[in-house]
Amino acid sequence: MTVLIAAGVLVCLLSAAGAVRARTVLDRLHFLTPVTSVGTPLIAIGLAIHAGWHLATALLLLCAAVMLPAGPVLASATGRVAHRANK
Fold it and tell me: Exposed/middle/buried for 19, CB within 10 Å: 0-12, 13-18, 19+?
């Protein structure tokens, strides 16, 4: 459980560090997409295992399940808008 949380936090920190160093909007989106597709689910699963089964755990897993497909879709849509604005 602690390993999952630590791995998720590490993914988030590395993505944030990469986003700070990126120069363009598209590069920043590229670095931030793993937060929603890898980091958040790892943290949510680790917290769910640590907390046990409660209503809060179900809500936590539901939020992670919604973010898993929605994050890359929103990043793609944001990238498309940013690309069109730079033309």
Answer: middle
